[in-house]
Amino acid sequence: MTVRTAEAIPLLDLKAQYATIRDEIRTAMDRVIESQHFILGPEVEAFEHEIAAYCRCAHGIGVSSGSDALVVALMAADVGPGDEVVTSAYSFFASAGAIARLGARPVFVDIDRRDYNIDAAKVAAAVTERTKAILPVHLYGQTADLEPLMTLARARKLVVVEDAAQAIGADYRGRRAGSFGEFGCFSFFPSKNLGAFGDGGLVTTNDPKIAERLRLLRGHGARPKYHSREIGGNFRLDALQAAVLRVKLAHLDAWTEGRRRNAARYRSLFATAVSTSGPRAVTTPLDIPERRHIYNQFIVRTSDRDGLRAHLSASGVGTEIYYPLPLPLMDAFSYLGHREGEFPESEGAARETLALPIYAELTEDQQQRVVEVIADWQRLG
């Protein structure tokens, strides 16, 4: 198969998305600028109601980032020194960083090879008398296996904090990510399926008392103003970001279906052009039937990941490695004493996985070229 010469295909093309909503975005931002109300306020409150309904949760509390969503959720769960929180060994740093930042100990569990999420069958063995919470990560846009995790949490009276930063709109058996645990934490980093024009985040909950405490903690624990009841933080969402997100939320389902359509097309193209066996085998992600995958990333896997990435880059195709090192092996967590070989599935994923372009605006011709480049790499091997 011969690779066609064409323009570069970026991993993510935010300009293509913006071109379709430019007038709506500018109108919304002008509305905030004219109001001169930039922190919290009516725009944020309106967004919180709309996004809570989308996530099928009773409450949504807008915060400053996905990382801060995790921090404030753990604060509201009273996680602190002496506590342990069980979480995935394979995720973005913030998942475990939020735990350590509060003085608690992250207890890592290896992932399930099928979906790159925490292996639910291994979580019970990681729970001790010091365990305060379980923090599953819904990686790449597909939820973890939540039923056994929730059953364990109820039996052991543990708090569940869902890291749904990459899973806005993902479903598990008909329920939305972020609606299972006491807390659901979301990120609106620009590259997310629902991305702001900067940092932003959200915590969802179905408990009104938890929602009230989250609102208190995000503003230095103060009520009334300048009278702090407890030590919180500055975790407030900007009104400009809320306005942008309100516009984008109306398009989110259409964009998600575009990503899902592109994922299905990749699978079809791979089936006819790419080998899944041999030394340069490349496999596509598993779409588990009981879960609605929203494809924040489309992850392929091959033993020569770096070779494939170099070939794609030379052909003008953008890629990314999510993530090159499991959390327990990072320098920041060296004090926990973990060694290579303890988390074989996470370590394998770190060596072999690669994200391909999957955004809704990606064209069929562009996808065909991505697959042709991969097939060409296999043929050269």
Give me the count of strands.
Answer: 12
Tell me about the largest β-sheet: 7 strands, mixed
Number of helices: 11
How is the largest sheet built, in terms of strand order? 1-9-8-5-4-2-3
The poorly predicted ranges are none
CATH architecture of the largest domain: 3-Layer(aba) Sandwich
Q: Can you give the mean pLDDT?
A: 96
Kindly name the structural category. alpha/beta
User: Which percent band covers the strand fraction?
Assistant: 5-15%
What is the CATH C level class of the largest domain, in words?
Alpha Beta
Tally of distinct domains = 2
- Give the CA-based shape: globular
Helix content: 25-40%
The value of Rg in angstroms is: 21 Å
Model description:
The protein is α/β, with parallel strands linked by helices and 381 residues long. The chain folds into 2 domains: 16-109 and 116-249, Type I PLP-dependent aspartate aminotransferase-like (Major domain) (Aspartate Aminotransferase, domain 2); 252-380, Aspartate Aminotransferase, domain 1 (Alpha-Beta Complex). Helix content is 38%, strand content 13%. The protein contains 11 helices and 12 strands. The strands form 3 sheets. The protein has a 7-stranded mixed β-sheet with strand order 1-9-8-5-4-2-3, with helices on both faces. A 3-stranded antiparallel β-sheet has the order 7-6-10, with no helix packed on it. Helix 5 links the parallel strand 4 (131-135) and strand 5 (159-163). Helix 1 (14-35) crosses helix 7 and helix 3 (66-76) crosses helix 6 (208-217). The two termini are 13 Å apart. The mean pLDDT is 96.
